[in-house]
Structures are given as structure tokens and as C-alpha cells.
Write a structure and sequence with these properties.
By secondary structure, this protein is an alpha/beta fold. 44% of the residues lie in helices and 17% in strands. The chain has helices spanning 3-6, 20-29, 52-62, 78-85, 97-113, 133-141, 152-166, and strands spanning 8-13, 35-41, 69-74, 89-93, 118-122. Strands 3-2-1-4-5 form a 5-stranded parallel beta sheet, sandwiched between helices. Strand 1 (8-13), helix 2 (20-29) and strand 2 form a beta-alpha-beta unit. The radius of gyration is 16 Å and the shape is globular. The N and C termini lie far apart (52 Å).
């Protein structure tokens, strides 16, 4: 793997929505790489609550302070996205042991599809280890306060989404 490739990392996910745990992972990774591309997957099979463009905008706002971080949406195979960017590292977060089996399976498949790319697992700070996008969506959908778990713009966007869909 060339040195240039190892300086570019892709942090892929659906980010429906981006959480403080995601931001924490980017904060930990930003000093390690020349560039980080947060790749937001369209993921129609997952039926995201927020449309791709809004997820991209919210992530850009949440990560604006990081000069070496770029946010892009994509609707292709992750291996193609990573290869097209010339990245050498895939960043993945591990919140708990329960995440490991699935993440290990993904890493193994990606190693087969893009052998020139390494997967790097990072763990969040303890205060973010229990936060997941699906829990945040459910709490918000039921009228709970998610402001401790997501950037302010995300909490506002979720509230607007539920008001729009309930109308």
C-alpha cells in the first residue's frame, strides 16, 4: 500500500442521523490522517428516516471544525467509492463487543473486495458507547429529548421530520 493511500481514510455509514459518537470518532481519527472522507451511504434497503442530502448537510455542519474532513454522499458499492477516492483505510467504530462480529464480517468482505485497503477500528469515549442512530431516531420519534446524543442541528432536523410525517 502506498504511503499516499494510507493518509486518506474513509469513514462510511448511513449516519441516519450523525450522533455525538460519530463526531467523537472523527475527532479521534482526524489527527491520524491527512484526509478523512465521511462517506454517507444512500442505503435505500435500510429505509433511512432522513434523505441523503439532509444527512450530508447535517454531517457537514457537525464536522465543520475539522479542516481535513470532507463529507460526501454515495450510492455505489463501498469498495468502488473507496477505490475511486484513492483511500487506503476504512474507519469503523466499535461501541461494544456485540458490534464486533458484524464489523469483522464487513472487514473480511472488504479485504476480499479491496485488498489494498485496511480497516481500522476505533472505540468511542465511554460517554458515547451506548449511543446509536437507531436509538436516537426511536427516542426522538416518541417525543424524547435527544439533545445530549446529537448535535443541535440534528435534534432540530429529527423533530421537524416527525412533525412533517405526523402531519
Amino acid at each position: 500500500m502506498s504511503v499516499a493511500r494510507t493518509r486518506i481514510a474513509v469513514y462510511p455509514g448511513t449516519f441516519d442521523p450523525i450522533t455525538n459518537g460519530h463526531v467523537d470518532l472523527v475527532d479521534r481519527a482526524a489527527p491520524l490522517f491527512e484526509r478523512i472522507i465521511v462517506g454517507i451511504a444512500e442505503s435505500p434497503a435500510k429505509s433511512p428516516t432522513l434523505d441523503l442530502q439532509l444527512r450530508v448537510e447535517l454531517a457537514r455542519a457537525a464536522l465543520a471544525e475539522y479542516g481535513n474532513v470532507e463529507v460526501r454522499g454515495f450510492d455505489s458499492l463501498l469498495a468502488h467509492f473507496v477505490r475511486d477516492l484513492g483511500a487506503g483505510v476504512l474507519l469503523r467504530g466499535l461501541r461494544a463487543v456485540s458490534d464486533f462480529e458484524y464489523e469483522f464480517q464487513l472487514a473480511s468482505m472488504n479485504r476480499h473486495l479491496i485488498p489494498e485497503v485496511e480497516t481500522l477500528f476505533l472505540t468511542p469515549a465511554e460517554q458515547y458507547g451506548f449511543i446509536s442512530s437507531s436509538l436516537v431516531r426511536e427516542i426522538s420519534r416518541l417525543g424524547g429529548d435527544v439533545s445530549a446524543f446529537v448535535p443541535a442541528a440534528v435534534a432540530k432536523a429529527l423533530q421537524a421530520e416527525w412533525q412533517r410525517t405526523d402531519a
